[in-house]
Structure to design on (138 residues):
């Protein structure tokens, strides 16, 4: 299928809620349009459905950060902090839509098998809950 910049621009206007003038072929969807985290995830999901793009090789952490503050992220770097960010532009989305697959080839990288930042956060939350229960029954 052949798609154009106009198709992607209309899609981004509807999904991101930005003005027509803000979207150029080379604008960075995260930095220039302010779409990141969960919103970026939803955008990419909707993009894959609307334009029938196979997202199998897609790796979110090369393109966007996670939302929220993570205390565990202070001690253990999350995936997006372990790689060099690759911007996603409307031009890239046009190329992917026309190809029917995610075309970005990622550099070799290695991530820990476990998300220690999230494990740390979970331990912190559980500790807080246990402490609060202890204080209530003391």
């Amino acid at each position: 299928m052949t798609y154009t910049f106009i198709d992607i621009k209309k899609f981004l206007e509807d999904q991101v809620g930005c003005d027509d003038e803000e979207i150029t072929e080379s604008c960075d969807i995260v930095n220039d349009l302010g779409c990141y985290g969960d919103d970026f995830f939803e955008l990419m999901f909707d993009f894959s459905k609307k334009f029938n793009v196979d997202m199998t090789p897609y790796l979110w952490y090369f393109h966007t950060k996670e939302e929220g503050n993570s205390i565990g992220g202070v001690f253990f770097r999350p995936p997006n902090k372990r790689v060099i960010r690759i911007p996603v532009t409307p031009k890239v989305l046009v190329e992917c839509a026309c190809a029917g697959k995610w075309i970005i080839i990622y550099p070799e990288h290695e991530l820990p098998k476990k998300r220690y930042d999230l494990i740390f956060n979970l331990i912190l939350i559980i500790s807080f809950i246990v402490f609060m229960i202890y204080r209530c029954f003391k």
